[in-house]
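Lab channel / #folding
Pinned by the channel admin:
"Please post every new chain as: sequence first, then the structure tokens as a reply. Keep commentary short and put observations after the output so the thread stays searchable."

First post following the new format, from NK:
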Amino acid sequence: MSSNTGRHSAIQAITTYKPDVAPLNFADTRPTDIFGCNVFNDRVMRERLPKEVYRSLHKTIAFGERMDPSIADTVAAVMKDWAIEKGATHFTHIFYPLTGQTAEKHDSFLMPDGSGGVIAEFSGSMLIRGEPDASSFPSGGLRSTFEARGYTAWDVTSPAYIMENPNGTFLCIPTMFLSWTGVALDKKTPLLRSNQAVNREAQRLLALFGVHTDLPVLSYAGLEQEYFLIDHNFNFARPDIQIAGRSLFGARPAKGQEFSDQYFGVIPQRVLSCMMEVERELYKLGVPVRTRHNEAAPSQYEIAPLYEPSNLAVDHNHIIMSTLRNVAKRYGLKCLLHEKPFSGVNGSGKHVNYSLGNSELGSLFDPGETPHANAKFLVFCAAMIRAVHKFGGLLRATVASASNDHRLGAHEAPPAIMSIFLGDQLTEVFEAFRAGRAEDAANGRKGRIMNVGVDTLPPLPTDPGDRNRTSPVA
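Reply from TO:
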């Protein structure tokens, strides 16, 4: 079949498409009722665990204290009973090898009882540690491929959850992935280690201001996920998209994005139906998705959750990606998450909104109404500027990949250039301090009220500086 004939067949199939998915009933089951229903969260633990066990586990999760291993069997037994009530027959340690995706190995709760029957079993040791084969995963040259033993270690700070399947459910336990010698084979372990280092140095810095907090200083992240949805008939006609996740040949479309008429336009009905089901599945898993809209490129869209502790935000982002892929299939769509699936149009970015702080301090990167007088903010902001200047190469390496380096030009920030954009107000404040004119910092520009010229509108306050989307660190 010629490519032209294949395209015509795909178009004909698309024009005759009829949804094969029953509409969701939002009236009988409200999102507020199902949010987090499949998560072994703090509320579930507080209700089900013995008080002393809950207090001990809560100290580990909230305050970063070392976990008491003696409580593991009790936690595992309660977690198992909760999962079985949800219909689970298996459990898996979810881990994050250097593949850009999650990995899992399922084990059954059922064990032979020696009398021809079975019993459900899940011990503390099974919860705390798993042992998948590690030899076939990429390791960045950190170990030889014949060194096969790898361990998954329970990440207590990221709650376990239930994943639903048409034929059942299973318990997912977020874990770190380590070699037999303790070498990190994933990206979660370095993140957790970095969080400890950030907390230690932030507490040291806060002490200079006489600020004390009992809670650890956390890094927070909000990951905006862009993605493409194309009809599966087009996908099946393109082996390059099926195999590589991006187009390797082809021509520019007759209609491009000259007028950006896709951007923030009305969401197509079929796509919106898919989005709504994605959000419903994510609500069950406690993912606080908030925003959905058309992105700039044809067939490109975005979903964005609220910010969370960075470790949980990254875990939720993996759940978002897998949910997008799975639900799209039910609507005859293919979800593309490749950074640059099509030549000549912007790619699927993953913009990360980042901050430091905790529930006692708020955000340490919040300048407030008078940033020139907010010494704590200025010091943390200066530390961030210094870090990007001093370790720009390392920061660049964390986002460098063959696929991500395609994301250049148009609506995108060039990933090869590390820079910070502070905005006019903060730039003037720092320049005044640098020149030894601290008194001038207080006289910098402030937010203004926009005059729209329409009397019926209320006053519209504006920020003192614009944003710069071509700066990797804004």
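NK: Residues 35-185 form a domain with the Ubiquitin-like (UB roll) fold (CATH 3.10.20.70).
TO: also worth noting, The chain has three domains: 1-23+218-250+258-352, 35-185, 365-474.
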